[in-house]
Design a protein that fits this description.
The protein is an alpha/beta fold and 762 residues long. Helix content is 27%, strand content 19%. Strands 1-2-3-4-6-9 form a 6-stranded mixed beta sheet. The chain has a 6-stranded mixed beta sheet with strand order 10-19-18-17-13-14, with helices on both faces. Strands 8-7-5-21-20 form a 5-stranded mixed beta sheet, with no helix packed on it. Bound molecules: beta-D-glucopyranose. Beta-D-glucopyranose binds at residues 84-85, 146, 193, 272-273, 414.
Length: 762
């Protein structure tokens, strides 16, 4: 070959090679569909799925540490981090230990507990809460918050009631939706828990709940249903207990049939930690991601613990041996990928930040709006004025009680936090009144639980006091005699058998002989205020002797500030009870049928499964007290203000057809002399029905802000579902044509307006 020709040949070969290399480079650089966020998410999921190996698929459906599962590193999916929930972002624990990781950047804002949020009856508060929490989670690198909790308050003994939103399905539904939307609005998944029927804590891994379909649908599921259908929750956590013999982390009815098929849930079902118990059920009954406490999803420790999870090596082996195809696995992985695309792979989510003033503001506002003024009597010695708000100028104020000083953000189980700060009630009052020319003294009054440690987070407080109860009471009484006001901060705390995960309370009574202390103080001082710190109702045998009673919840970082603001009247209280405050357990439906209904009966005498039958059925909370004509200490929806309101002139705005919306207008007037907020509540009763129905049920509400003398018209809208019951025969909601009585007012026991409406079949 001539040299020139060889040259030309060489050039051609070089050119072809270059072309080949560059086309390979182009191919390598072209974005795969799964990474292209202009593409439809479902297309991206399928594209990612087909690139994954069996091992990679198995890796993403189970935990690799206490709070994370693996991403898909080869394909660029980061690890997936979850965290508790629901009141703030839990501090980091070690990879496979519950002890603290010892980070210095994981202190958070502690938001008020969810009972307080529910007591605000303000969905806008809930959205702000979710949003602020989401921003904290983002900063901490968490893609899923394990919350909110929407289990129904069935008994005041429930150890985790403080983490939930009360007894009413409608209130719970309205409050959970904005929380989920706020949180997910910043690209953090919510994991709504504990689905479902986890209404008490004792034996929570072994309880098999027996409940009618009606009670399940009308009382226990609506909060979850709203979170999924309206809130579009991206995650749901299966509960520990059983229903119809299957654990709720892999339950064919609650997960496959109801959650996924009926409600169209397209997110991930996450097991509660250690809640999976069976490979076959875990594969087939709706569980998507298995998380756990120790090795086998229960309590045993082992090395390589996570490999032993049901949805880890055992599942992989069973697939390789042909017991299962990859059909169920792919369905789980699709859901996990969808969650990744919504969270870790969402490039548009904000960065988030921690402990900002805006987050404290949310915490403070929720706390202030959730505090409930239960009682506020007029007293002769104060010229017939009410005790609250206190008038501090020139006064001597005696503050009493351990809960005035005890940090409450540490403890209680998985919702325990490491708060950047927590202002105690005593501190809050001192700060607020420092320029008010008054003297604040403190007496301990009682000693409760002086430990302050949860998984290595310590409060740093030394609350030890060896004095005997009589001595403490005598000291407080002595000081109370001459004080202008006595403000007692008592109640429960976050220790075992109180407001705490893992156990239920043993009774409704206040612990640590507080009843004696409160009665003794009220006997010597007529201006006594009792502030109850708890997530549950407590019995108050001295109720008639204490003129002012405030429900102060667990209020988080800004507790003291919010309480002081309400006590001195900077904030006019507007919280309303999200549950019935019973006089005693004798008024509680769940406690009216013996052990069968609570805590249950061990099956066959063996301590394996305990059957708990919800024999009160749909009659939970005020539905029970109404039916039995019982007068609780404070009714559901009750909460006073420093002003007064009048609810009047309820009118139905349209004729009712079976598929129409029902609109009601009602006027509310501030008849007192301070600006304030009231919650207008609408309850509906079916006058005649083929099945037994509650005396009334909450179906709409709205919080309104009014200046003195001002009247506003509130429009409340409901629909056919509000008139319906769950028809066990057809397995569907049913509204029977006929008359319905609609009542409005501002507490379930204060409903001055009535209107009758008739539902006609079209
Ligand atoms: C609790 C869950 C919690 C999980 C992780 C479980 O024991 O029931 O509510 O999210 O632990 O801490």
């Amino acid at each position: 070959m001539k040299i020139k020709n060889r040259h030309i040949m060489l050039k051609k070969t070089l050119f072809i090679c270059l072309m080949m290399v560059s086309s390979v480079m182009v191919a390598q650089h072209a974005k795969p569909i799964y990474l292209d966020d202009t593409k439809d998410m479902e297309e991206r999921i399928e594209d990612a799925l087909k690139r994954m190996t069996l091992a990679e698929k198995i890796d993403v459906i189970h935990a690799q540490s206490k709070f994370s599962s693996a991403g898909i590193k080869r394909l660029g999916f980061p690890d997936f981090w979850t965290d508790d929930g629901p009141h703030g972002v839990r501090p980091d624990v070690l990879w496979d230990e519950w002890e603290q990781a010892g980070q210095t950047n994981d202190s958070c804002v502690a938001f008020p507990a969810l009972t307080c949020l529910a007591a605000s009856w303000n969905p806008a508060m809930s959205e702000a809460y979710g949003y602020a929490l989401g921003e904290e989670a983002l900063y901490r690198g968490k893609s899923m918050i394990l919350g909110p909790g929407v289990n129904i308050y069935r008994t005041p003994l429930g150890g985790r009631n403080f983490e939930y939103m009360g007894e009413d399905p409608w209130l719970t539904s309205r409050m959970v939706v904005p929380y989920v939307q706020g949180l997910q609005g910043v690209g953090v998944a919510s994991c709504v828990k504990h689905y479902c029927l986890n209404n008490d804590e004792e034996y929570r891994h072994q309880v098999n709940v027996i409940v009618s379909d009606r009670a399940l649908r009308e009382i226990y599921l609506p909060g979850f249903e709203a979170a999924v259908r309206e809130g579009k929750a991206w995650g749901v956590m299966g509960a520990y207990n059983l229903y119809k013999g299957e654990h709720n982390c892999h339950n064919s009815i609650t997960l496959n049939k109801i959650l996924k098929q009926e409600w169209g849930f397209d997110g991930v079902v996450v097991s509660d930690w250690g809640g999976a118990h069976d490979l076959d059920q875990a594969v087939k009954n709706g569980l998507d991601m298995e998380f756990g406490t120790w090795t086998d999803g229960l309590t045993m420790g082992a090395t390589n613990a996570y490999d032993n999870y049901y949805l880890s090596k055992p599942y992989q082996k069973a697939i390789l041996e042909g017991t299962y195809t990859e059909k169920e696995l792919d369905e789980k992985v699709r859901r996990v990928l969808r969650t990744f695309f919504r969270t870790t792979m969402n490039r548009r989510k904000p960065y988030g930040f921690l402990c900002s003033e805006s987050h404290y503001e949310v915490a403070r506002n929720v706390a202030a709006e959730g505090i409930v003024l239960l009682q506020n009597e007029k007293v002769r010695e104060l010229n017939n004025a009410t005790v609250l708000p206190i008038d501090p100028v020139g006064k001597r104020i005696l503050v009493v009680g351990e809960n005035a000083v005890k940090m409450m953000t540490v403890g209680g189980g998985s919702s325990s936090l490491k708060a950047q700060h927590e202002i105690s009630p005593l501190q809050g009052l001192r700060d607020r009144l420092k320029d008010s020319n008054c003297r604040i003294e403190y007496a301990r009054g009682y000693v409760g639980d002086v430990t302050g440690n949860y998984n290595g987070v310590t409060t740093g407080q030394d609350l030890k006091d060896e004095r005997k109860p009589e001595v403490l009471i005598a000291e407080a009484v002595e000081k109370a005699r001459t004080a202008d006001y006595v403000i007692i901060f008592g109640g429960l705390n976050k220790s075992d058998y109180q407001d705490c995960e893992g156990h239920d309370r043993k009774g409704m009574e206040l612990p640590y002989e507080q009843d004696k202390l409160i009665a003794a103080l009220a006997a010597v001082n007529k201006h006594t205020v009792y502030v109850n710190i708890s997530g549950n109702a407590v019995s108050m045998p001295w109720r008639k002797q204490v003129p002012a009673i405030v429900q102060g919840w667990f209020l988080g970082s800004e507790a003291g500030k919010a309480l002081a603001a309400v006590l001195v009247g900077d904030v006019n209280p507007s919280g309303k009870l999200p549950f019935t405050w019973y006089e005693s357990l004798r008024q509680v439906g769940a406690h009216s049928f013996g052990e069968e209904a609570f805590p249950g009966i061990w099956r066959n005498g063996k301590k394996e499964i305990i059957d708990e039958e919800y024999r009160e059925g749909i009659y939970v909370g005020y539905r029970w007290t109404d039916k039995q004509k019982l007068k609780p200490a404070f009714a559901f929806g009750h909460g006073l203000s420093y002003t007064t309101f009048k609810v009047s002139n309820l009118r139905a705005e349209n004729t009712l057809t079976i598929d129409g919306k029902l609109t009601f207008n009602v006027d509310v007037t501030n008849t007192g002399n301070r600006p304030g907020m009231d919650v207008v509540q609408l309850y509906i009763s079916d006058v005649k029905c083929s099945v037994d129905r509650p005396v009334k049920e909450l179906k709409a509400f709205q919080k309104v802000s009014l200046n003195p003398g001002e009247t506003k018209t509130v429009t409340l809208t409901t629909d056919k579902r509000a008139l319906s019951f769950w028809d066990e025969e057809s397995g569907d909601w049913k509204a029977e044509p006929g008359d319905f009585m609609v009542q409005a007012g501002d507490a379930s026991d204060n409903l001055p307006c009535k209107v009758k409406v008739t539902l006609i079949e079209r």
